[in-house]
Amino acid sequence: MQTLVSKLLSRPRFISRRAPKSHIAGVPDELAIEIDHNGSPITKRPSEWFVCFVPGLQKQWWHGFTNPRHKHVFALKMIGGGQWLIFEPWWNRIMVTVLGMDEAVKFLRWGALGSILKVTERIPGDGSQARGWANCAVQISLMLGRSYWTWTPHGLYKRLSAEDGVEPVNLADFLEEKLISTAQRAAVKSLGDVSALTKLSPEAAFMELGKRISKIMFSLSSLSLYRFAVSEAPRFPAAAEAFFTHGPHQAGASVKALISHFCGRGQFRHCDQERTSRAFLSMLRGNLYMEIALGCRTEPNERDLESRTKSVVEAFLRGEVFLHGPEGLPVRPLKNRREEEEMFATVNEKNRLGLLAHVEETETPAELAS
After folding, report:
1. pLDDT at 325
2. CATH number of this structure's domain 171-324+331-369, picked from the four choices 1.20.1740.10, 1.10.357.10, 1.10.10.10, 1.20.1730.10
3. In sequence order, what are the residues at sequence separation of 6 or more whose Cβ sits closer than 8 angstroms to the Cβ of residue 68?
4. Residues 296-308, buried b or exposed e (16+ Cβ, 10 A)?
5. Can you give the pLDDT at residue 11?
6. Is 192 left (phi over 0), alpha (psi -120 to 50) or beta?
7. Partners of 54 in the β-ladder
8. For residues 211 and 203, is the Cβ–Cβ distance under 8 A?
9. Closest listed residue to residue 277, CA positions, set 247, 244, 316
10. Which pLDDT belongs to residue 137?
């Protein structure tokens, strides 16, 4: 049987030597052949869009003919790394650009004045370019792959609201959930297993933890969240609290656990561990953090960040906790191994979940902004 198949396949009439008729001259074969069933070079899963139906920000002559709360429509979607993509039709162009979290929230706040719907786009969709006047409602409908024949934002809102799977969005609840999940992922990915650092020397342990915290602290997504928390805290206090609780405070819990370990081993003198951990975080932030957050300078590269962290760790160990200090300094008694293992198991679980019940809260988002 195998020999028969081989013979049949070897005959010229079964194997075409010509390019497929669907190929266009000048298009490389690998591009023309490697397309999906929708005719695209890549296959993407449908995305969820936050479609915002909003009132106007400035008076326009045509506003009197439209719904008071739905005079314009645009859409945003999350693209990872704390960034958003906005698709907003204007009179003279379509704005398609990437926004940080703090920038996206301004558009979402505008959307909350009207209505926000979470809508899944259709691929390839059943829309049409032959729709006549390409206003904002028509272009958003086409972008979502819908075939609705409606020319007003409110008309599109009613059609989308009637679809199965389309959900209204409560902005305050969404922001709180979003910030919690973002901080949790950052803690799991970057802070990691703090207990593993106890096998290192104090210098190496704090150097590694300092690099991990600095990497989160100076990342574009973290800086964007910080700007959001500071500027929007009065309007979204629960979301700002979630950022602080699952971000800076969780990093402080990790530092405090490491300090406690080396105090227990007698390598650090007795100190207020809560205050000392906050001092370490403050040294890592320094003026550089505010300069970058305010846009006065760009974020440091990895090499500069490592050099800066090394200087901070050296100053902290020699000045704050009196590493290898004079004889006779009071030190805490050595913790038993079981107690220490339980402490690090708790901290690692908090890093994994992004929770902070482990440490007594001593700061507030208002202090963070100061």
Report:
1. 44
2. 1.10.357.10
3. 55
4. eeebbeeeebeeb
5. 47
6. left
7. 72
8. no
9. 316
10. 94
153-165 pLDDT, tens digit per residue, is 999 999 999 999 9
What are the respective helix, strand and coil percentages of the chain, to the nearest 5?
A: 55, 10, 35
Q: What b/e readout covers 261-291, taking b as 16+ CB neighbours within 10 angstroms?
A: bbbbeebbbebebbebbbbbbebbbeebbee
CATH 1.10.357.10 domain range(s) in the chain: 171-324+331-369
Three-state DSSP class for residue 104: helix
Rg (CA), the chain: 28
For strands 83-89 and 94-100, give the pairing.
Answer: antiparallel
State how far the alpha carbon of 254 is from the alpha carbons of 222, 268, 281, 311, 351, in Å.
18, 16, 11, 20, 8
| Calpha distance 108→49 (Å, rounded) | 12
Read off the pTM: 0.69
Residues in the chain: 370
Residue 209 pLDDT > 90: yes
Q: How far apart are the first and last CA of the chain?
A: 81
Residue 333 tokens read as 């008694």
Phi and psi of 87, rounded to 5°? Answer: -125, 105
Q: DSSP alpha helices (H): ranges in the chain?
A: 2-10, 29-33, 101-113, 136-143, 153-161, 171-186, 202-217, 220-232, 237-246, 248-264, 273-293, 302-319, 337-353, 365-369
Q: Is 49 helix (H, G, I), strand (E, B) or coil?
A: strand
